[in-house]
Amino acid sequence: MESNGTQPSANQKRNNLATPHLHHLKRSFNGDHLFLAIIVAAASSVLIIMALLVIKIYDGAAPIFDRFGLSFLTSLDWNPVADIYGALPYLLGTIATSAIALIVGVPISLGVAIFLVEIAPASIRAPLSYIIELLAAVPSVIYGLWGVFVFRFWVRDLIETPLSTYLGFIPIFSGTPYGLSILSGGLILSIMIIPTVSAVCREVLLSVPVSQRDAAYSLGATRWEAIRIGVLSYARAGIVGAIILGLGRAFGETMAVTMVIGNAIGPFALPTSLLKAGQTMASLIANEFNEADPVSLHPSALIGVGFILLLSALIINVAAQILIYRVRAKGVVE
Amino acid sequence: MWSRANYKIRRLKDRFILALTVLCVILAIVPLASILIEVVARGLPAISIEFLTSPPGVIGQAGGGVANAIQGTFILIGLSSLIGVPLGVLAGVYLAEFGDNTFGRVIRFFSDVLMQMPSIVIGIFVYVLVVLAVGRFSPIAGAVALAIIMLPIVVKTTEESVRLVPNIIREAALSLGLRRWRVTLSVVLTAAKSGVITGVMLGVARIAGETAPLIMTVLGSQWFFSSLFEPIDAIPLRIWRLALLPYDYAHQQGWGAALVLVTIVLALNVAVKVLTRAKFSGRVGI
Fold first, then answer.
1. Which ipTM value was assigned to this complex?
2. What pTM value is reported for the model?
């Protein structure tokens, strides 16, 4: 979508058009140079923000890193009264909820994308994809409200109760069904990543040439075989990009998770069972930020958790963007 | 490659998986349907003149409303648009008109990365940058955070819509002897107007519902706006606080506020849909 092959030359043509024009009127006051300087400055603001983002958050977190060093990442205790902080349970909590989100959300998203691109009659394609897009427009806090008062009971009655009744002897299914748990947090995330993942998957599937499908059909493939062999294998890199983008969304999502995960603290927050209350990095920050005593290390510890979140998000999103850029570039060539 | 002998099994498998994809669609739509139904069913009874025009009452007692939160949300949208829209539009114009070089690609890349950045991280950033520096929570800090969230959305849609403007329009304007900057601002940007407006509306829809970055920038408040340097309230923040209170009336007010917020956000999204459709049908005529 970014550039479709003809664009660079068209743009060059534009610039060539302008250059002699600028040259010709060089002596008079040159509004063009001023204009260019202003819009270059505006574009640079993106880079300045990104750089300051890393520097400033690191600044804010420096006291906690100075005090605890690497053990901030590996210890379990979180005790504002004793001013001792360890972020490991929340890092693991974020990984656990994101994993649930991907395990549940990705197959559904892929199914939606396959239905929309390969199967749905043309007449319902556009309205249906718009409805799915609307899921992305619903604010996170609305998911949270719905999660606390509606979804929580679905999870408790339909999933957690049977799990603990029949499989409760397995450690990861142990615990009392309460509906405010790591499972609830992960499941609400799986709903929230569906629009992102399915939209990118849809775009990737659409870019697969029709000849891929025709070739499979000509060998006698059924529709599903054509999709699996001709389309999905061809689109693999793009689908991986979509999944990583979904992971990025799940990692940083805050309000909905905060409201349904149960908000455990310290060693209790370790994600040892799906049915237990947990805590993610983002939910911890949201819960405690306004209660942190400014003279203690508490605010710095929360900013330190934010710094870990920032680095993870940077790595995940840079990887996703590179993959998706590559797939788009490939789409143009073929 | 495929024998006819097992054709029945293969066809059965085909049907089964196609049915599974339909199930996926249903699974994806059920939450949206449930959210919309619950928000309307539980939110509507909370809506009243008092609810929409008065600030919160005493905690623990029914009564009061969310008027200060509604006011706060509109103030935040206004302030952040004041920062985010000009910056985003100009950056988008740069990328579309002059951005086919390494610098442009770097900007585009980081703009996409910024778009996916968790909003709570941006909240922490603005907390350190503005709140700690000024020494208090304020609408200014909230607006800076929301402007940063809005920026990449406006950049992207502006770039895409400016790229759609046919070159012949630029050539025609340049041939009249207009300066390049005049051509870009008055002619190209005007031609791309509806696309740019769409982007701004999408950005506003996104920031109207943001909650996490507001926790550490505007804090929330029981009162109406008094100054640019005092904490204010916002609808999403109020929904969160109300949901946490252990009172039925608070939960009902939370649903009422949710109805207000969902109405604003979905109205913006639907308006964008209508606008883009109009744009494309208009474009056929050119």
1. 0.92
2. 0.90
